[in-house]
Amino acid sequence: MKLAIEPSPYVVKDEGGKRVLVIDCRDAPYTPSFADDRNARFQVLRALSEVEADLVVLAEVYERVYDEGQTKMLAEIAGIYTKFEVEAVWSYVHLGDPKLEQEKDFGDRHNLLVRACHDEILFDPVFSYLLLLKEVEHEKERLQQLPKGSQALVYYKTLLEAKAAFEGTQLIAKSRELLSKLEKAPDTNQLYRAFFEAQVKPSFIGSRLVFGDEEKLELLDEYAVKDANVQIFKHPNKTEKMYFISLPEYSLTPEKYFLVSKTKEVVASYAPGKASLSGIAKSRHYFERVYQSTMKDICRKEKIEASNEDLIGLSQVVARYTVGYGVLEVLLSDRRITDIYIDAPIGDKLIYLVHSEWGQCQTNVIYTQDEADSFVSKLRAMSGRPFDEAHPVLDYDLPDMDTRVAAISRPLSPDGTAFAFRLHKTTPWTLAQFVDVKFMSPLCAGLLTFFIDSQATMLVTGSRGSGKTSLMSGLMLEILQNSRIICSEDTLELPVEYMKGVGFNVQRLKTRSPIGTGEGDNEVAPEDALRTALRLGDSALVIGEVRSKEAKVLYEAMRIGAAGNIVMGTIHGDSAYSVWDRIVNDLDVPNTSFKATDVVVVARPIRFKGSIERHRRLVQVTEVKKHWKEDPEDEGGLLDLMDYSTKKDEIQLLEDNLKESDIFTKISGLTGLSLDEIWKGIRMNAESKSYLVGLKNEFKLPELLEAENTVIANNKLVLLKEEQLEEFGAVDHEEVLGKWKNWVRTYLIKRVQGRGH
């Protein structure tokens, strides 16, 4: 029998090109679960008979989300309900043939059809089908008992057509398959639970977390990020890994759901201004204390029991979805991630990311347009820059997350807003760490350290994601700490603040981004910043990335020696020749100026034997010779000093090429060192990196290779060498290295172990 129930209000939202039917169940007298409550089924099927949808959401304190496949099954049932109504299958003409039958039976038939095809179908479509099936069998038996000439088939055909309509739906087809395997028909709710397991999430969260059948996946890794749990899976049929994140707010008790939702409602009227947003990291604790106070008031009013520990944890959840970045904030806090991509149309696809250990991964997070709009508002407020159709690009650094975000929108992105996030490593890579992960060989590390010590001009090149910025960070740490460093960059990726913290003298210059800014922008152009840098005194100069007009200024400075000390920079390319081509032909720097470059270092991701896995490797160290005129490759102007061997998975010294090298002779003339002394120094540096890696593995101390410790080790090696120079006028490299190794074991190891405890 049909139950009298008021229709719940609903809306249809557009999310990433998908129509989302949201039914408001907050004041409903039923359980908001399609599988568990017949009244909830009625609300969903009634709404789907009136509107089209791709997803269904039953929204209360938390939301139950039914995906596209489930929604399609439900829409089919709503469709046959509408079909039955339009055709009025219970009308007189469908009930029988009055010439052959007595009309006294038509009333019962009408009631049966109304019950099965109208009254019950929206509450319990499987029960309606079973009811109809029973009537089909009953009518079939009745007809078989009648003589052929007196059989009236009108009602039987009506039943068969209605039965066929039911069986044309996925829900009934799946139910029949399941019922055929059971000896006894179960409660229909059990069937619905088999087909309609919803994705449950708190209503105050926009993003959905999608969880598939983890039993089919191979667990590769698991770790915690803040209060969330991360699992990395391998899928049997996908090339990318699966990055699944579980948040505590998805498993709160109903009381805690209510408490968080109510607190968010109360504080929603407060909108942080530009000043507040720019200092989110500093004011976060303030907001959390405000939320804790609000929760205490709600607990007293609603008589909810919650411990102080509960309130602290819940206040952090509320902060995440008010002054924070929502679910995205947790991803940005995972420093094993290097990049995050949210493509347009938002809400249509899962977020993708690049993991430092597992490569490209598909997450289980679906971002929503509402969240994107909120995030864009924060970006506008924090950056002070426009982001609209006239300015469809916004490039900005999130200082509280050590992350650069590039946002694009219409008309540049015809499908709407999209984001790309580059997460900066919180501690910079060191050359010892690069040796440890086989990015470079110890000898290569020693050679690069020598070039820096000799104040060579170096360019680091590679494709996006090849590791060139990370390598530049490691090279900066090899600069002697008694040097002053000027660092100019448009996006803040180099570890300047960290270097200051471990004793370096660094001045950062922030220049105008090449994208997302206009002529009226108040930031300084890169070429003007570089001219300023050259007036800031004798300093090592590091350019975050050589892109355009600043190249001419840089090379003019290098030619006349105005920059002083070492000059380093990164540039996009895949070889030393491509760097020359870019600088001379694209950036219009004369050949004679390009010759001021001493060394080009090339990094590249390698796919061994066609594997889908990418491994970053340093593949070339190339000297730029000076005696050529037009094309350095044709005229022997580019000399490879080291080259990568795929077979040995190592970058190796090309000893035969050293005979043609000019740079070592030049440095020998400037320093008074013989070639033999130069190479002893290079090999000492190489052995020092290798020794640290060995001790890291021996003592299981990854912290030993972090910058705060390798800088101390580098300084000690330099000081021991300097002591010998002052005392003997020459360096016994073996003796220096021996003393240094003893110091590392007796002092540095204990220092690191002590900090670890």
Describe the structure.
- This protein has 757 residues and is α/β, with parallel strands linked by helices.
- The chain has three domains: 10-195, no CATH class; 249-423, Beta-Lactamase (2-Layer Sandwich); 431-669, Rossmann fold (3-Layer(aba) Sandwich).
- The chain has a nine-stranded mixed beta sheet with strand order 7-8-9-12-11-10-16-15-14.
- Strand 1 and strand 2 (18-24) form a beta hairpin.
- The two termini are 70 Å apart.
Helix content: 40-55%
Radius of gyration equals 35 Å
Q: Might you state the CATH topology name of the largest domain?
A: Rossmann fold
Number of helices: 25
Q: What class do helices, strands and sheet pairing give? A: alpha/beta
Measured between the Cα atoms of the first and last residue, the distance is 70 Å
Q: What characterizes the major β-sheet?
A: 9 strands, mixed
Number of domains: 3
Low confidence ranges: 273-279
| Spatial strand order of the main sheet | 7-8-9-12-11-10-16-15-14
Outline:
The chain is an alpha/beta fold.
Describe the secondary-structure layout.
Blueprint: E1 10-15, E2 18-24, H1 38-48, E3 55-59, E4 62-66, H2 68-87, H3 106-119, H4 125-144, H5 154-167, H6 170-179, H7 188-195, E5 199-202, E6 208-209, E7 218-225, E8 228-234, E9 241-246, H8 254-267, H9 274-278, H10 280-302, H11 308-320, H12 327-333, E10 337-342, E11 352-355, E12 359-363, E13 365-366, H13 369-383, E14 393-398, E15 403-408, E16 418-423, H14 431-436, H15 442-453, E17 457-462, H16 468-476, E18 484-489, H17 496-501, E19 505-510, H18 526-533, E20 540-543, H19 550-560, E21 567-572, H20 576-586, H21 591-594, E22 599-606, E23 615-624, E24 638-645, E25 650-653, H22 663-671, H23 675-699, H24 707-728, H25 733-756
Parallel strand pairs: 2-3, 9-12, 17-21, 17-22, 18-19, 18-20, 20-21
Antiparallel strand pairs: 1-2, 3-4, 4-5, 6-13, 7-8, 8-9, 10-11, 10-16, 11-12, 14-15, 15-16, 22-23, 23-24, 24-25
